[in-house]
Design goal:
Length: about 200
């Protein structure tokens, strides 16, 4: 008699165990979103911030006389310093700017410091006995950049029990490498506040 009374309790336990197992096996649903849509998942630096800063900086830089003059300046990019407390891929910002500036056909880019070793290795490889030397690219023909794009991104974080406020500032400058004259600079700011 007691065994039959325990049966509903055991059945409930068995159903709960099966439900947990099925829930654990359920696959998360993935879908494509709008890459240009506003991303507000957290108040950390995100895709919307990257797109907005790169676009605003590019439009400002295109208006500087060095570029408006139509002389196709050659620019090298120095890695933007991340002075925030979080990881930010600053190369993604400059890569997006580089792409937009190249599409404008008003700026050319020389190999930057990060790519120089690969460039050097390729030149050395082509000047080895593996290649027909009459058709190989010659060393000593690289063109130096006339301008250097550099900068930094900083942040100030303020937090209370109920609110977290993050202020980002991106600063970029374009410097004439030969003269050391800063031809262009710009700062762009973003403030993101989260209420708990």
């Amino acid at each position: 008699m007691h065994a039959f009374r325990r049966l509903p309790w055991l059945a409930t336990l068995l159903i709960a165990a099966v439900a947990i197992a099925v829930a654990g096996c359920a696959k998360p649903k993935t879908r494509y979103g709008d890459a240009g849509g506003v991303e507000t998942v957290t108040n950390e630096f995100g895709s919307t911030d990257l797109q907005m800063l790169a676009e605003q900086m590019t439009q400002s830089m295109l208006q500087t006389p060095v570029i408006e003059g139509g002389n196709l300046p050659i620019v090298t990019i120095q890695e933007v310093k991340n002075k925030t407390s979080e990881y930010i891929d600053t190369r993604a910002i400059t890569n997006r700017m580089r792409s937009t500036l190249q599409k404008s056909r008003r700026v050319r880019f020389a190999v930057d410091t990060a790519e120089m070793q690969r460039q050097k290795e390729e030149l050395e490889r082509q000047n080895s006995e593996l290649y027909d030397q009459e058709k190989a690219v010659r060393q000593g023909k690289m063109v130096g950049a006339g301008y250097r794009l550099s900068g930094e991104i900083t942040s100030i974080v303020k937090e209370t029990k109920n609110v977290k406020d993050v202020y980002y500032q991106l600063f970029l400058s374009l410097t004439d490498i030969q003269t050391g004259i800063e031809e262009w600079s710009e700062t762009k700011d973003i403030r993101k506040t989260t209420e708990r």
